[in-house]
Amino acid sequence: MATSHDCGLIEFITDALSIDYIRKTMQTRYNRSCDLFDYFRKNYGHTRSKTFIKAQKNFADSLAAYSLVCYILQIKDRHNANIMLTKDGHIVHIDFGFMLTTAPGRGIKMETAPFKLTAEFVKILGGGPHSDIFRRFQQQMVKGFLQLNKEAAKIILLV
């Protein structure tokens, strides 16, 4: 939060790691390429365990919210060092320096997708549209869009 023209406050996100850090650490630890699904299995247990399913639901719900915010505010600079994963599986974006009309690289638009939904994210969501957790993500996106539509005037005023 900006407090003046040359200073501000930063909120720290505790118990969270960047996706970039998770990948590098997993690769070093296991001496092979690992993805977020491997991280989920190693940290939350078997894919049918209560802890894994809870983390997966947290991921799906927060990914839907993150995707909607990225879409509405046109957040840029969505590389894996700016996307954090909390200890309970929530996605958190950091670094909001580039949004709306600003972009890294002096205005050159590097990102054309309105939000980031990678194959790796889809794998955590159960592999695709036929899984319950992916359908949960879709339903949360629809609910979010409907709510954004109801609040459009307020959002436009704020932006």
Secondary-structure topology with pairs:
Blueprint: E1 2-4, E2 7-8, E3 16-18, H1 19-30, H2 36-44, H3 50-73, E4 83-86, E5 91-93, H4 119-124, H5 132-150, H6 152-158
Antiparallel strand pairs: 1-2, 3-4, 4-5
Structure description:
By secondary structure, the protein is mainly alpha-helical. The chain has a single domain, classed as Orthogonal Bundle (Phosphatidylinositol 3-kinase Catalytic Subunit, Chain A, Domain 5). The protein contains 6 helices and 5 strands; from the N terminus they run βββαααββααα. The chain has a 3-stranded antiparallel sheet. The protein has helices spanning 19-30, 36-44, 50-73, 119-124, 132-150, 152-158; strands at residues 2-4, 7-8, 16-18, 83-86, 91-93. Helix 2 (36-44) packs antiparallel against helix 3 and helix 3 runs parallel beside helix 5 (132-150). The relative contact order is 0.14.
